[in-house]
Amino acid sequence: MDENQKYEIIKKLVETNGNKKTAALKIRCTPRHISRLIKGYKEKGKAFFIHGNRGRQPSITLSEDTKKLILDLYRTKYYDCNLTHFSELLNEMEDIKVSVGTITSILRKEFILSPMATRSSRKALKKELKDLQAKTKSMKKAAVIQSSILDIEDSHPRRPRCAYFGEMLQMDASMHEWFGGIKTHLHVAIDDATGQMLGAYFDEQETLKGYYNVLNQVLTNYGIPYQFFTDNRTVFEYKRKYEKKKEASVEKDTFTQFGYACKQLGIDIQTSSVPQAKGRVERVFGTLQSRLVVELRLRGVSSIEEANKFLYSYIKKFNKRFALPIDSIKSVFETQPDNDKINLTLAVISSRKIDNGSCIKYHNEYYLPVNAYGVAVHYRKGTTAMVIKAFDGDIYCCIGEQVYLLELLPHHKPSSKAFDLATLPEKPKKKYIPPMSHPWKQASFERYLKKQLHRNNIA
């Protein structure tokens, strides 16, 4: 249109011998340039006003084959990716370097929006699709157009970050089809000040085991944080109401287990029933459900063990992409505890009774309390014992103020004195038994139980 307007102005100027200054004001150029346009018009006519780049493609233009390849990759291999993640994966795995804006325009022509698209973008596309549906007569085409509209996740309100690294860790779990077409729970701990993912663990359910594994990663890699901010799960906040005839089970009381472990480490626990209060970790789950699912699918992950192994490398990649640098942020993590203390602190406790065979039944197996030299220790039937399953799987037993090892009692003897060759008995080696300073002593644990409000109410 600009070229045609210039042509009409110059044509009228030449035919009427008009004023060059007036024509210069209309075209917004100098009178000297008007003289050039008059000369070109007299020599070449209307063809002189056609721009030299008309019909030429820029050197950086993507070819049609590349555009089709990007569209096919998104539909078949990288579906459900947000477009920023899709751009990163194309560069990393397909060696195709394109901007997010270019990808947006390619997909937008096929009525494909990002899963993280805004409400206004969704409304604009919906209006455009309705106009197309009104014009088209094919029901099949109308159905295809309608299916192109994607649902958009609700946003979460913002909240100021904490001042220090380790001041508050938001912890939660998300149930989703992360891999293999099955629903699993991803347990995550996020630092509020920097947004760093400090620990992550997959489990079949939202369990004490999952949160213990996340806490173990935090303690091993960073140290002891000041506070956890979580939801009102039974692991963190006691809500269960027992009937009058039923007694509270220490083994099922996961709040007591996790709460006592945090008490020994000096970690404060705050809970909230409002998801928006811990919006940092909720938004992280939105990001992970968009990105991690694709990453796990591309790696062929199909089991919880494989997924947990992959998380070790993915946490570094996630923090490098999304977390704030911690160079200028002061850390308030306390000194990292040693492995023995972590192993004994993150323990699962169960209350048992000594049977008439001086054994303890635990997980359908019989165990015999032994001392450090492997010599069996006998107690009266009905004696209360506290079974301690350490984080690494070792099992101990605390009776009163004394700690013993638990030796699995086999169903049959491994050998026979009458029929097998006699061998010299080995000198018993002293085995490691936690000292009395360990955090799960029976007396101190029982004192902690009595301080709990729900224990007083039950009593």
Automatic annotation (TrEMBL):
Gene Ontology biological-process annotations: DNA integration
InterPro entries: Homeodomain-like_sf, Integrase_cat-core, ISNCY_transpos, RNaseH-like_sf, RNaseH_sf
Listed Gene3D superfamilies: Ribonuclease H-like superfamily/Ribonuclease H
Start and end residues of each Integrase catalytic domain: 156-345
Alphabetized GO MF terms: nucleic acid binding
Protein name listed in UniProt: ISNCY family transposase
